Amino acid sequence: MSSASSTFAKNPGGVIKCKAAVASGAGEAMVIEEVEVNPPQPSEIRIKVVSTSLCRSDVTAWLSQAQPPLFPRIFGHEASGIVESVGEGVTEFAEGDHVLTLFIGECMNCKQCVSGKSNICQKLGLERKGVMHSDQKTRFFVKGKPIYHYCAVSSFSEYTVVNSGCAVKITKTAPLEKVCLLSCGTAAGLGAAWNVADVSKGSTVAIFGLGTVGLSVAQGAKIRGASRIIGVDTNPEKKDKAKAFGVTDFINPNDIDETVQQAIKRLTDGGVDYSFECIGDTEMINTALHSCCDGWGVTVTLGVPKTNPNVACHYGLFLTGRTLKGSLFGGWKPKSDIPTLIDMYLKEEIKIDDLITHNFPFKDINKAFDLMVAGKCLRCVIHMPNE
Fold first, then answer.
1. What is residue 387's predicted lDDT score, i.e. its pLDDT?
2. Residues 1-29: pLDDT tens digits?
3. pTM of the entire structure?
């Protein structure tokens, strides 16, 4: 599959009409509609999307009953594409550049960006209002009616507009239909192991949830030299796949006569050095903390909760030396760090291809959602038309 064969709509600098998957309400099937995509404003770029993968976060937001409802909306944030046009003041991108989209940006100038301690950009952090950072307006319309954005990206559209700080230029030798996973899930898991937990050689690890993020954590822990990596999942079909990513022990909570933390402590002489919650279940964070050892055990939470966003746990877990950390995009500074991960993939130092379980043409995007809801896929990559 050639990722560089895409052609551009013939209206540089003007409104582009193209197809997008529009969600009209929570849990309602996507409808492929003709949308108008406005030209990029100052500090923005317009991208022809080549490939975009479906992340669990897309599904969680799609099903959410949050108020006020942000519909109609175009989801999608793990994407690769080609720059179609650039807005005023943009100098780092040019037409034809290959890029990955970023759901959190990097302005490189704010307190957070220059601190060296964080990747939570004050200007281009998580966008929750469904509009562009710059002017709080949308770039999508259907018959004059505005359509909300998602995560500052909205990649389930043949064309999208993002802030130039929410994209990173990548080498044209990277296959766009593969590296789109580094826009979120794969990078998030690797970074949680390397940047946030800083997994050490010979250590023990427990991972709760063996989806794309969890398997990427396992891959990162294996590369760091962890001696034992325990994967926890209720889906028995994950067992063999997990081994390929470095998991040494598999626990299905439905198949044991003890609690998960008891099983993990028994296997590791008192608890693991690091545990990772990759499900989006705040009750599981408590289990992950209990699975860590006294003194220095570290729990990292990566999942986005579907319900019950509050974490409740006994203070004694921390009094005895455990640490709970949150991780957004694995701590990576996206524009600065993602090119390094691209290079590692091209050198076959990290795996991406094995995380892609399904490929769909854009017209079949609802099949990808069905598989994700049913728990029958890791990553579904959706391929946009090449014309």
1. 59
2. 434 444 455 566 799 999 999 999 999 99
3. 0.94
CA distance 46 to 160: 6
End-to-end Cα, the chain, rounded Å: 14
Compute the 3-state secondary structure of the chain and give helix, strand, coil in percent, each to the nearest 5: 30, 25, 45
Distance (Å) of CA 84 to CA 130, 159, 178, 372: 22, 9, 21, 31
In contact, 224 and 194? CB cutoff 8 Å: yes
- Please state, in angstroms and rounded to a whole number, the distance separating the CA atoms of residues 283 and 298: 17
| Interval 37-87: pLDDT, tens | 999 999 999 999 999 999 999 999 999 887 777 999 999 999 999 999 999
pLDDT of residue 148: 96
List of domains in the chain: 16-183+352-383 (3.90.180.10), 188-328 (3.40.50.720)
CB 358 within 8 A of CB 368: yes
The pLDDT assigned to 10 comes to 56
Q: At what angle do helices 282-290 and 260-268 cross, to 10 degrees?
A: 30
| Nearest-angstrom CA–CA distance, 35 and 147 | 9
Distance of CA 314 to the CA centre of its chain: 30
Query: Comparing C-alpha atoms, which of 180, 182, 73, 79 is closest to residue 131?
Result: 73
- Spatial strand order of the sheet with 140-142 comes to 16-22, 31-37, 140-142, 145-147
Residue 295 gets the label, from left (phi > 0), alpha (psi -120 to 50) or beta, of left
Residue holding tokens 């008891």? 262
Quick one: average pLDDT of 320-333?
96
- The residue ranges of DSSP E strands in the chain, in sequence order, are 16-22, 31-37, 44-53, 78-86, 98-101, 140-142, 145-147, 159-163, 167-169, 204-208, 228-232, 249-251, 274-277, 298-301, 323-326, 356-361, 379-383
Residue corresponding to tokens 């991972």: 207
The rounded distance, in Å, linking the Cα atoms of 143 and 73 is: 14
Ramachandran angles phi, psi of 189, nearest 5°: -70, -45
